[in-house]
Design a protein that fits this description.
The protein has 292 residues and is α/β, with parallel strands linked by helices. Helices cover 35% and strands 21% of the residues. The longest helix has 21 residues. The two termini are 31 Å apart. The relative contact order is 0.18.
Amino acid sequence: MSSGLIAETTEGRPASTGEPILRAAGVGRAFRGLQALADYDLDLRQGEILGVIGPNGAGKSTLFNVITGFLRPTSGRIVFHGREIAGLPPDKITALGIARTFQNIRLFAGMSVLDNVRTAQGMRGGAGFWETIFSAPSFLRKERAIEERALEHLAALGLADLHGVPATSLPYGLQRKLEIARALATEPSVLLLDEPAAGMNAQETADLTQLIRDLHARFGLTVVVVEHDMSLIMRLCERIQVLNYGRVIASGTPAEIRADPKVIEAYLGADETPDMALPTVDGRQQTHEESM
Ligand SMILES: Nc1ncnc2c1ncn2[C@@H]1O[C@H](COP(=O)(O)OP(=O)(O)O)[C@@H](O)[C@H]1O
Ligand SMILES: [Mg+2]
């Protein structure tokens, strides 16, 4: 396991520059006695792509929810660029520069593709109220700039031609990409992706892997990706954390994680196949609320 700040460069995977920008210490979240996340520690380094994996119900989405303010942690500290953010509301955390996508896609139904992105852009400060009233030309200029930036983000995801169509009329895979475009529209430094390849076939997943790599480089992002698809995780991430029952049971390079008996056991039980097909923790389906 690499413990230094400079991660080793592994074949083809992006290497981080090393500065820790998001730190979590002892973070936990309980739901009526169920400890969904416990004693979670993280030193996220500027520019890295961290993978978080683990069976269904392991606490991965809960982790994203506490980092982004959708859930208040019941214990621990989360520090972003030196500032405590645990318990801040989601819009504040977004404004500070942490963006996310959702495991269950949350696009604005009834809005066009472009408007979904444009709306998100406002979260990092669009035209102000007084400016709107007193300074129409500057307001219009700003609106214009906002639209152009939104189209840039759509283009980055290959969605520019679809800007006018209703967001929810897009096929599922494109809706996932639109969620990423919308997250980028808030101009984040840290991007959290919750199962971005869910529902995609092997080719779509390979394309998405390359796309995330491109966005990471182009927008100078630090990325945390939760994903069940091991081909994406292993190709993209220089470091991986494995959650099981809310706790980190392993952390290291893809090669270390692949060979870790605790990981193999958590995923596979008696099964030996290393593609890490994911059973649910207790064999039942997740409810809608659970998979937030
Ligand atoms: N809002 C919630 N209310 C109650 N229980 C929840 C809620 N969110 C998650 N959980 C529970 O916390 C555990 C972790 O869930 P989750 O973080 O969604 O796991 P993962 O994303 O790894 O599949 C599960 O047992 C789940 O049922
Ligand atoms: Mg989840």
